[in-house]
Amino acid sequence: MKKFSKTFIIAILLGSFVFPFLTSVVVAQDDDEIRRFRIGLTGTPAVDWDRAITSAYGIIDLWYKGAALEYMYGTNRNYDRGFSSGVPKQDTYIPILATSWVFDYWPEEINSKGFINKGGAENITFRLREGVTFHDGSAWNATVAKWNIDRVWIITGNLTGRGDLRNRDIYWYPVANYADYYTESWNLTSLIDPYPFGVYDGYFNPRPSDGGAGVDAIWGTADDDFVAHTPYNLYPIVKRVVITDDQASGGEIRIEFNDWNMYGMTSVGLIRFMSMETYADFWDTGIYGFDNDDPLYPDHMIGTGPYMYVDHDETAEPGGGSMQKNPNYWNRTALEAAGWYDADFIDIITWPAGTLGIESRNTALMTNAIDFALDNFFTPVDYDDVMSNNQIRYMEEKPSDYITAITLNCIDETWWDQSWGVINWSTTYLSGYPSGNTPDGVPRALRKAMSYAFNYDQYINVGLNGRAVRASALGVTNIYYDDTVPIATHDLTIARETLLNDPIFGPITAAQGLTASSTDSDWQDVANSVGGKTPIWSLEFYWDDNFETLKNVFQTSLEDIGVTLADETGALGYKVPTTIWTEAQIYWLNGFPVFSADAWPLDWNIPEVISEGWIDAYYADPDDGRWRPPNYDFSDSIFWPDFNLAFTYATETDAWVHEMYLTNDTARGTVMNKIANWSQNYQYPWIFVSQSKEGYVIWKDWEMSDYWGVLSYTLLKYTGFPAAPIPGFEIGITLTVSAVSVVSVVYVIMRKKKIH
């Protein structure tokens, strides 16, 4: 990315002293101008884009890759009609790089658990679209499709020793986990011990290593340490890909599955297709980073999509990058004939996470330095300002699929309990955090009491100005959500009685003179150590700047049950400098104390549909409680918890998770609500706080269609502002130097973008 001279930046800063005394009048782009659609974001980190290795949650994956690389098929906002009205799932998919498909299903047969496995796809045949080319000019065909799919399983299974195991659990499943559910036709017992791990369409690695230096750097293990041991045999979801019609363009493939594959195409639906010609040397190893100037890799994200990736720079402030319209896009003619696909460039402009970044983004929005912004929990717009501006359109969406929840550590009820003693972590683990390295959680009675003590109405209606709804374990937008399943509400009577009557906390509360008739002040005095009182628990709660309001409500709520926070201001290191998401999700790299911290807030995703994988990730034991002997050196292990960081391991939930994959839609909803009920009324692993109200904010000189349920760059239409401006309409530039400087730099980014 082009660097801007210090002289120019100084000029911008000096200019900001003049700009506040001027007004900004909205000016439409001329028809002959290059049209740039500018998106403002905050707090989204940039990570790898390659599906085989990426977490899929960075700005590159969410805001660039989807426009550069395409799926074989897609879903839009009507996808749930396949659940609500009985429409076959395959009829709800929308053709993209594939034009049609045919399903062959596994026979519906009874398993040893006594119910019938239903709805699993044994194989799917795809007819591929003809006349499609990649950004490098190479053709899309069956050979390329097979290469892309094979590549994911070769890398995630590390079948050549050059792979990367970080996404292994997405594409490879434990054989033994489903042994009780096998039927006469669907049976993988041949892959159970002593059959070794690592078989995919002729590729076989009998001694899988940790992937070489690339993975060593992550896991801290020695070269060639085994990462798969019996009974930890895994099977690839896809068995193989067969080319059934080999054409220079288009053609046909058949994907055969090992897995029951209940949704048919979802296991391959994660794959966006890249150019085989450009990335031929990376058939068995990951493509890391996103810098097109990196000499280790060809240009990034060479796909078939409507936009070509140019660059993204995280070092600038604000940061950002751009994408350029693909002149050879296969669907260009149809889109333009319908009046869409008007943006010549997509500019992504980013600010850091936190209050300052949000304020800067909102200033850019209100001054039309950007055209589009999301309104959600992490990046809220100034809703009143937006709604009062007649030149800005607010598009209300459903509540967020992301649940704001407070993780409550249940580790003491798992095989990680105190009897294990101090885990032998690597020497760098837990450095810089106040918690120790001994597994230590929160007793269930206290988890329940905190769930009933939290003041949900205060947080949602006051802290968030009503811009959220109460959350649940499945999420209130989920198609299986059942509002008759009880959930904790703000009820101090239940919260206090839970502690007073508990074998552990009963004596503790009695020692502080607390009874059922104690007043609010009595409980608060205990929390605040008034008159020689001692809090019944000092909660090791971590948070970040985004959750400051939630922390404040949580703190006052806990005082009502005699509990205090170990660090109320962040002075002791419990307030992380980045984001909780960043810290917790890569705890093995930065040492965030997931095993010993009591609680922390986190937004986690439960999609409206196809949420089973997420339920699995949050509730299932990652290895069914086997294999780890006492005093095992976990610094050498890759079998660490990934998403289930509340440690909600239980035999019954593991069984429910397995069953939910193999039943029909009705039975699946029943099973998922058993999990919700267990979570909300027995285990209390999370305080399910809220789901934010969300919307899209877009200036009215652009129109967008929400056909896909999300912003689609191809479905943007430039209309210009109304010919007759609204009388007196103008936008005052804010008087602060910092805000004007931010907008000025944004202007430079969007006008001085370096095009490769």
Automatic annotation (TrEMBL):
Domain Solute-binding protein family: 93-570
SUPFAM superfamilies from the UniProt entry: Periplasmic binding protein-like II
InterPro entries tied to this protein: SBP_5, SBP_5_dom
GO BP terms: peptide transport
Keywords on record: Membrane, Signal, Transmembrane, Transmembrane helix, Transport
GO molecular function: peptide transmembrane transporter activity
Keyword set includes ATP-binding: no
Pfam family, one: SBP_bac_5
Parts of the chain that traverse the membrane: 731-750
Family: Belongs to the bacterial solute-binding protein 5 family.
UniProt-recorded name of the protein: Solute-binding protein family 5 domain-containing protein
Organism for this UniProt entry: marine sediment metagenome
Record lineage: unclassified sequences, metagenomes, ecological metagenomes
